[in-house]
Prior knowledge:
This protein is mostly helical. It is 68% helix and 0% strand. The two termini are 24 Å apart.
Amino acid sequence: MLDNSPVRSSFCDDEDFLELIEMFVDGIEEKKAILREASADQVEELKVLSHQMKGASAGYGFEALSQLAADLETACKAEDRDEIERQKEIILNHMDRIVH
Length: 100
């Protein structure tokens, strides 16, 4: 069963980070659209996107998203189409729950 609880940055209580977190969260919609449209056959594109998300997410305090992006990147490196699709669904569910 998928979790539906809101996801917030671990830095959300730090006033100095709020504007940066908002900018990151605002960019999530574009990344979700790319993930939804990309097929498991677009391994290289998904690998690059997941690698970028892995680093950026951790930097903005979204550690769980960073780990999920790492899992997707691993599936891409293995070129495991079924696992790529599974990881895409997991990460998209998580991204749908991200709030400022």
